[in-house]
Design a protein that fits this description.
With 302 residues, the chain is mainly beta. The chain has one helix and 28 strands. The chain has a four-stranded antiparallel sheet with strand order 1-28-27-26, with no helix packed on it. A four-stranded antiparallel sheet has the order 2-3-4-5, with no helix packed on it. The chain has a four-stranded antiparallel sheet with strand order 6-7-10-11, with no helix packed on it.
């Protein structure tokens, strides 16, 4: 993948944009954590509120039912706290409706700060939960899963806090995530073993979002590095794409790569609206994305 790709600025004045997902009509929905909302950008490249969800949403993904599934961390971006805090959860947002809470606890473990989520090929929803970003006093780290019939399980309970952040699921069902505290990328394979794909380059890589290119390469955003690491499936470093000041997450739509950019680090208890949205033309585009529908027990009995 070329390293000289030129990002195009789409819109700015965003409040910690994260977790983009492409809608059927080609518009883009992403979260603005500081605004406690989902935001939509259409063909006119204008940002508008899609849904107010309280707290601080961290990421969203489109389901096959047309709903958006949201990682809700409860109301934090670094030291900042939302005016309207809420319970950390997985939310579901249907067009024209408010947020619905699906999950707040998994196998007796209360969610502490869901961060990023993705559907697997079998329709299972998988998400990271690192808690609040605080390297000096870190929260426990988990990866959870929610099957289409609403059964929630712990996929990974980390022995030490690593802040699992961006997450993808490969075609064979392997789960890959990056870690903000360690700068590493790891894979949970089908046999239950965890493969270390290595630490990303740089003195202090703080990794955030992740997606998969058509050739299977992993694209990993680096908040401090100001760009995107391009990593082969075996962990070999293939290159680096400069994009934004503090890129948070990214998503493919064909050969268009959308990148959300906070522009600044989350070091203040005051909200920042310096965030931006970029797009790049990436030859070959992205790998297929998967969608699912979660039917909770109450719905199944309806």
């Amino acid at each position: 993948m070329k390293n000289d790709l030129s990002p195009e600025l789409v819109t700015d004045n965003l409040g910690w944009p994260e977790g983009p997902t492409v809608m059927p009509d080609g518009s883009l929905v992403f979260v603005e954590s500081y605004r406690s909302q989902l935001t939509i950008v259409g063909k006119d490249d204008k940002a508008r509120q899609f849904a107010y969800v309280t707290g601080a949403p961290n990421s969203c993904v489109l389901g096959s039912d047309g709903a958006l599934y949201v990682c809700q961390n409860g109301g934090t971006v670094g030291p900042w706290r939302a005016p309207e805090m809420t319970v950390p959860s997985i939310q579901r947002v249907r067009p024209g409706a408010g947020p619905e809470i699906l999950v707040t606890e998994v196998e007796g473990v209360k969610l502490n700060g869901p961060n990023d989520l993705v559907f697997a090929p079998d329709g299972t929803l998988v998400w990271t939960d690192p808690g609040t970003y605080n390297p000096a006093s870190p929260d426990p780290s988990y990866i959870f899963a929610l099957t289409p019939d609403g059964k929630a399980t712990i996929k990974v309970a980390f022995p030490e806090p690593v802040f699992p952040n961006g997450i993808v699921v490969e075609a064979d069902g392997s789960i890959v995530w990056d870690e903000s505290y360690t700068g590493r990328v790891r894979r949970l394979k089908g046999d239950g073993s965890i493969e270390d794909l290595g630490r990303m380059p740089g003195d202090n890589p703080i990794l955030d979002g992740m997606t998969i290119a058509a050739d299977g390469s992993l694209l990993v955003t680096d908040l401090v590095g100001g760009g995107i690491h391009v990593v082969a499936r075996d962990g070999a470093i293939k290159g680096f794409i400069k994009c934004g000041g503090a890129p948070t997450n990214l998503a493919f739509d064909g050969e268009t790569l959308w990148v959300t950019d906070a522009s600044v680090l989350a070091s203040s208890d005051k909200p920042s609206y310096a965030g931006r949205l970029w797009r790049l033309k990436v030859p070959g585009g992205g790998a297929p994305t998967y969608k699912g529908t979660i039917k909770m027990a109450a719905e199944a009995g309806a």
